[in-house]
Design goal:
4 helices, 12 strands, 7-stranded antiparallel β-sheet, binds flavin mononucleotide, alpha+beta, NADH-dep_flavin_reductase, Split_barrel_FMN-bd, oxidoreductase
């Protein structure tokens, strides 16, 4: 390794990783954008997330990391169920709406209620209905693991998020990647 690169790496290893640096660096890991929704005591709740990760195929598990103290975090844990609405490229405004703290995210918004009685955003790229399998605190977030009970997929394009900006995710027509377990 050239000595300049090594020096840079050492400098980075010694630097404290503050929250902004963490956010900026992880922002290089491009993601989709989803809204997690639930209904607790008859009131709908929802928040925009990009911390969505698939955890297990059998059983089907996913996780989201939710800020401690956010209204939707408490509501999801109280209700014990939630939906993950994966947004389409046309739903940037919904992503912004569900990221505004303290606002009524559902004002004037038509939602449907599927089998598991959680509000679901119409025309999302996909949605997954989940039951909370477990949850635990990690740092300043609650990791919520959901067992997926039902899914729905639609035609279209997903909304992307990269470097703190919404972005396109482009299918360049490459060969599918075949991987085995
Ligand atoms: C693209 C994007 C991704 C986000 N991802 C997360 C996330 O994964 N976890 C989280 O707690 N907040 C995330 N947020 C911030 C929440 O959406 C925001 O704090 C929300 O308003 C909190 O919900 P509340 O109004 O129910 O408190 C994200 C915001 C944006 C715009």
């Amino acid at each position: 390794m050239p000595s300049a690169d090594l020096a840079d790496m050492n400098a980075d290893m010694n630097a404290a990783v503050d929250p902004l640096t963490m956010r900026r660096t992880m922002g290089r890991f491009a993601t989709g954008v989803a809204v997690v929704t639930t209904s607790a005591d008859g009131t709908p709740h929802g928040m925009t997330v990009n911390s969505l990760t698939s955890v297990s195929l059998d059983p089907p598990l996913l996780l989201v990391c939710l800020t401690i103290g956010a209204r939707s975090t408490d509501a999801i844990i109280r209700a014990g169920r939630f939906a993950v609405n994966i947004l389409s490229a046309r739903q940037e405004q919904l992503a912004l709406r569900f990221a505004r703290r303290g606002e009524d995210h559902f004002a004037g918004l038509d939602v449907t209620h599927e089998r598991h009685d959680v509000p679901v955003i119409p025309h999302a790229f996909a949605h997954l209905e989940c039951e909370v399998e477990r949850h635990f605190v990690a740092g300043d977030h609650v990791v919520v693991i959901g067992e997926v009970r039902a899914v729905c997929e639609r035609e279209g394009e997903p909304l992307g998020f990269l470097g703190g900006r919404f972005s396109d995710i482009v299918d360049r027509g490459h060969e599918p990647v075949h991987w085995t377990f």
